[in-house]
Amino acid sequence: MKKVVFYQQFPLPYFGILSLVGYLKHHGYEPEIIISSLEKDPIDRLVELSPEIIGISAMTVEHRWLMQAAADIRRALPNSTIIAGGIHTVLYPEEVLSIPEIDLACTGDGEEVLYDILREMEKKEPDWHSLRGIGFRSAEGAVCVNERAPLYSYRDEIIEDRSIYFNRYPLLARDTAHRFISSRGCPYHCNFCYNETLRNLFRNSGPYIRRKSIDNLIAEIRAVCGNNRTDAVFFVDDLFTMDKKWLGQFLLRYRKEINIPFVCTTRANIMDDEKAALLAEAGCRTVSFGLESGSYAIRKIVLNKDITDDLIIQCGRSIKKFGMHVQTANMFCLPEETLQDAFRTIELNIQTGTDFAFASLLMPFPKTAIADYCIEHGFLKSDYSFNDLPESFMNISLLDLKEKDVIINVQRLAYFFIRYPSLYKRFKGAVHHMKLRWFFDLLFAAGNFLRHREERGVSWLSALQYAWRMRKTF
C-alpha cells in the first residue's frame, strides 16, 4: 500500500483529516500527520517519512502558505504526489491547481475520493479522467476538473481517529477541552457563510445535511475522553441543535454515558425553553450562537439572516433561564455598517445577557454572496480575489468604510464592553482615540483568552497552554 502523510499548518486536529484517517484505517492504511507549526523542521520530518502521497489541507486564508508548502515539499520529495484538500480546494480548484507543485485537487468530501485515488495509483498508468471528485493537470498542462463526487454520508463502522494527532503531538492530547462535530451542513442560507456556496455546488450530490449516529458519536467521545483528562467537550457543528428528536435522544445517552460539561451551538430562531432545559439537564455549560450585528437591517438585507432583535434576546433568556452561559459570535466592519451600528451590536449583546462575546471582522470569501454584494456596492475592488485575504479574520478589514478604524476599536473592546456594561457606558467614547489602538489590541488579546477559558470552564494552565500554541493563528 502507498504511504500517506497529511500536512497542515494550524496546531489542532482538523475534522476533515480525522474522518479521512478513520476511513483509510478502516481500509488498511496507516497514515501519518505533520503539523508544520509544531515541528522544528517539518520538511525534514517529511523526508524522514518519505511518503508516496502527501495530502495538504488548507483554508482559503492559507493560500500563500499552501503555495510555499507545496514548493518546499516538491523540492524535498520531487517524486511524491501532492494532493490538495480542504474547503479552499473545494471552492477554488482551478486556482489551487495553478500552483505548479500540486498534482491533484480533491473537490469535495475526501473519504471515498482519496481511497479511489490511492487505488488508481496502484495502476501502472493512472487515469485521472475517470475519477469523480478530483481536479488535475493534463499531459499538456491544462487544468481539468472532473464532475464532483457525491457527498459523503457517515458510516457507523468508521470512527474519527485522533490517535494520529495524539501519538505524534502529546500536547494536543493534554488539552482539557476536546472538540467534536456531529454533523455536516446547515439548512440556512446566510450569505457570508461557505455553506450556501457548498449547497449550490453539491445541489444534486445527495443530502447536504448529514449527521453521525448517536452510537458512533458516543463511541468517538469515549475514545478521546476515556483516555485523556477532559474538563469540557465542545460540539462545534454549524448548528448542533437543529434536530430536536436527535438532540433529545443524544443528550439522554450523553448524560448517562459521558457526563462531562459541554459547549454547543444553536441559532436564535430555533432555541426555546424546551431545548434549553434538555441541554442544561445533560450538563451544557455554554450555548453559542451568531448574533452577527446589532442592526436588524444589516442582518436581514446584507447578511440574509432574518432574525429579529426579539428572537435574539429571547434566545439569550432561554439559555440563562436554565443556568447556562451565553456566547455570541459578532462581526464588525460589515458593508453599510456605521459606528452607531457597531455600538448597537454591543447594546444588543447586553440586552441578550451575553457572557462571552467573540468579535471578529468580516472576511468576505470570494464567490460568496457577501463578497459579490461588497463588490457591487463599492466596498471591495472589482478584481478582489483570495490573494487579497489576510491570514486572520481578527485584525484586518478589507472593506472601504468611512468609519472603519473607529469600528475596529469597538471590535477590540467588545468583550469587555459586553461583559461589563458599566465600562461601555463610561468608556465608549474612547474608541475615537486612535493613539490608544496598542492598548485596545492588548485588551482584545486578553478578552479572547478569558473568553476561551470561561466559556469552556478549563483551568488557567490549560487556557494558557492553548493560547501559547495558537498565538500565531489569530
Short description:
By secondary structure, this protein is α/β, with parallel strands linked by helices.
Task: Give a written overview of the molecule.
- With 474 residues, the protein is α/β, with parallel strands linked by helices.
- The chain folds into two domains: 142 residues, 3-Layer(aba) Sandwich (Rossmann fold), CATH 3.40.50; 296 residues, Alpha-Beta Barrel (TIM Barrel), CATH 3.20.20.70.
- 43% of the residues lie in helices and 14% in strands.
- The chain has 20 helices and 15 strands.
- It has a seven-stranded mixed sheet. The chain has a six-stranded parallel sheet with strand order 8-11-12-13-14-15, with helices on both faces. A two-stranded antiparallel sheet has the order 9-10.
**Count of extended strands:** 15
Number of domains: 2
The termini sit apart by: 39 Å
Give the % helix. 40-55%
Side by side, the strands of the main sheet go 2-1-3-4-5-6-7
CATH superfamily of the largest domain: Aldolase class I
Low-confidence stretches: none
Sum up the structure in keywords:
TIM Barrel, 474 residues, single chain, globular, 20 helices, Rossmann fold, alpha/beta, 6-stranded parallel β-sheet, 43% helix, 15 strands, 14% strand, 7-stranded mixed β-sheet
